[in-house]
Structures are given as structure tokens and as C-alpha cells.
Amino acid sequence: MRGTALAAVGMAGVLALAGCAKDSGKSNAASGSGDNSSGSGCVTAPKPPAAPAAATSSSTDGGKVDGSKLKVGLAFDVGGRGDASFNDAAAAGTDRAKAELGVPSVQESTASPTESEAARQQRLEQMASQGLNPIVAVGFAYEAAVKTVATKHPDIKFAIVDDDTITLPNVTPLVFAEEQGSFLAGVAAAYKSKNCHVGFVGGVNTPLIQKFEAGYLQGAKAASNKIKIEDEYLTPAGDNTGFQDPAKGNAKAAAEIAKGADVVYHAAGASGKGVFDAAKSGNALAIGVDSDQYNQKTVAADKDIILTSMVKRVDVAVLEFLRAFAKNDLGSLPKRFDLKVDGVGYSTSGGKVDDIKDVLDGYKAQIISGAITVSDKPAK
Predict the structure, then answer these.
(1) Does position 7 have pLDDT exceeding 60, yes or no?
(2) Where in the cell is it found (predicted)?
(3) 47: which DSSP letter?
């Protein structure tokens, strides 16, 4: 898990609607009961123009590829397979590679929350020494380890998710426009908030997670100039336990809900389970991240309060990297997985955003066209 000002082209004029409900300290209307109506009186911006009838985005072209000779290594970030978020998305990519490309097997290994740089390097070195090729490192925390090990093994191809600082010829960056997908999450939150008061919970305060925060804040403010936003992180940069502490996520989200936030978006990895639990207990809604969390078994007990998820298609990026590797055509990969190539987006599972899908797709089309530029730096 892990810039530029808003160009408000075509956003002139303000729709006069009833005022926000007063913040009472409790959510009095946003629940998981399936009510799909928009937040009363919060939205102040005019509805965006309808998206073009033609598809507003395009994904990479698959085609028949033989991956039966690939020996893939997958080095997970903190949380590993089963985190219902970032790592599960990467795992879904290799699972799809097995089914679609015929990749025979994938060797997986997971980072611990407090492990040293030497441990990350040892994990990658062990994979390289076993002849695995290619090797996918999930998360920016692997940057130094990938650089070191890839330098020692120039004949092995590496991919690293969420880092594009390594310039070695055998390292492929897989990076995303998290701020673009998060903008749509912010719009959805504003449209669905009854209190005109929403929240954000970030796992670790890093530049990567700030991209989620930045897009969410910008999207919510684009939809409403009256929106109130709670904005918190679980741990500072360097303390990766923020991605694997559901209890802390619960406490932080509960505090935001107590202040009046009735829709809370998390970018906190496995800690998001605690955010979902807090939303359910506090009669609020929550927005998931990375994977379509409505369909994740590990958070199934809270699926009724999941409004949508900002889907970061790590699965697509990993699958397309393996496909391109098998074709010996890594140069065909997108430089960044954004809305235009379906690298990020939003989920519709559960039906709670069905009534505003035209709004979300309208904003999506404006971002793709360049009419709206989403910043990757939070504007408080």
C-alpha cells in the first residue's frame, strides 16, 4: 500500500441547495441500511457534464501469451496475502497470471512490520539465488533492497510497486495515480454524507499515502464548498505498524465519527478493518481502498457499510508486467497506471453509488480529458 492544482474548467456556477445538517457529534443518517440517496444539502457544485458515450478509459491489450516458463517471486509488503487491500491486489495479479498466462507457480514471502533493511534485502537475494525470474517487490519500502539486489543480478528482471526512483535497466516501476481514484472517492463521500462532514484515515504519513489524502480532499471540496473534513494518520513516516493495527484504525475512525464525520475513507492497509468496524458501530459509512473491499472475505462482516472502494489495480499492473516480461516487451507498459488505463477507479459492489455513477463518471471523464488536474499534494 502506499503533483497540480485543481483546474476547475467547466465548474462555473453554483447549485443552490439546502444547507448542511449541523454537526451533532453523531451520524444521524448515514447507515449501512442500503439507503442510496445523496447527502441532503451538502453538494454545492453543479453536476459535471455526462461522460462521453464511448469508453472513457482503456486498459492494456491482453492477447494470448505463454508464461509457462516463468518462475515468479512475489515479495509482499507488511500484511501479506490476506490483508484485504494492497497485498491481496498484488496476489490477485499473480493468481490471474497462473490462470491466464499459464505461470506454473509463484513463490511468496511477506515482510514483517518492524523488519530491517537487511531482512528485505535477504528476502530478495534468496529469491534471486533460487533462480526466480522475474521478481515483484510490493511496496516502496523495498526501494533500497531492490536497487542493491538488482545491481548484483543484472540478468534478473525486477518490478517494484509504488516506486519509480530506481533507474537500473532490469527494474520496472509500477506506479499509480492514486490521487485520481481518491478524487472520485471524495466526490462520493460528499454526495453521500448527511452531515456534510467526512473523514480520512491514513496508515503511515508518507508521500505515497498523502496522494490518497490529497485526491480525497480535493474531490470532496470540488463537490461541496461546505464540506468539513477530519484528516488523521495512524503513525508517522518510518513506523509501518500503521498498516497493520486495526485497533488503532478503529480508535482513530471512531474519534472522527464522534466529531460528526459520517463517511470515512481509509488508506491504511490491514488497519482498515478497524476503520470499517468503527463505521459500523458508529452508524456511518466507510470507503475501502486498493481492492474492492466489499468482496473481501476478511471484512465481510462490515460489507453493509462499505460505500465504495478506491480500486488501485495493482492486480492489473502485476499481471501486465508478467505478460510483458513473457513477451519480452516491457517497454509496452504504461508509465503510470491512471484512470485512462483503468489503473485506478472506484467499485460499485453493494449498489450504494449506483445513483451517483453518472456524477462519478462525469468527473472521471474530466480528469481523463485534462479539464480537471488532481494534485498529489494535500491542500489543507
Answers:
(1) no
(2) Cell membrane
(3) P
